[in-house]
Here is the input.
Amino acid sequence: MHPAAAGALSLSAGAAANLVLVDPVARWTVNAGALASRSRNTPYAGRKLPGRVQATFLRGRPTVLDGKIA
Here is the structure.
C-alpha cells in the first residue's frame, strides 16, 4: 500500500483490520536488549519516551499484545 492511500482506509465488517493501539500517556525507557529487533544498536538506549504501543493487528490477527510479540 502506498502511504498516501492510508487515509482511505476504513473500519468495516469484512475489511482487513490493520491497527496499532497506542497508550499516549505511558512512558518507557528504551532498553536495546528488549527490542524486537536483530540489531541492538539504537541511539535511543536509556532514553525515556512518551507513548507505548500496546497492540498491533495485521489483517485482524494480533501481532503484538501487551507490548510482546503474539
Notes: DSSP finds no helices and four strands in the chain. The CA atoms of residues 2 and 8 lie 11 Å apart. The beta strands are 19-29, 48-58, 61-65, 68-69. The mean pLDDT is 83.
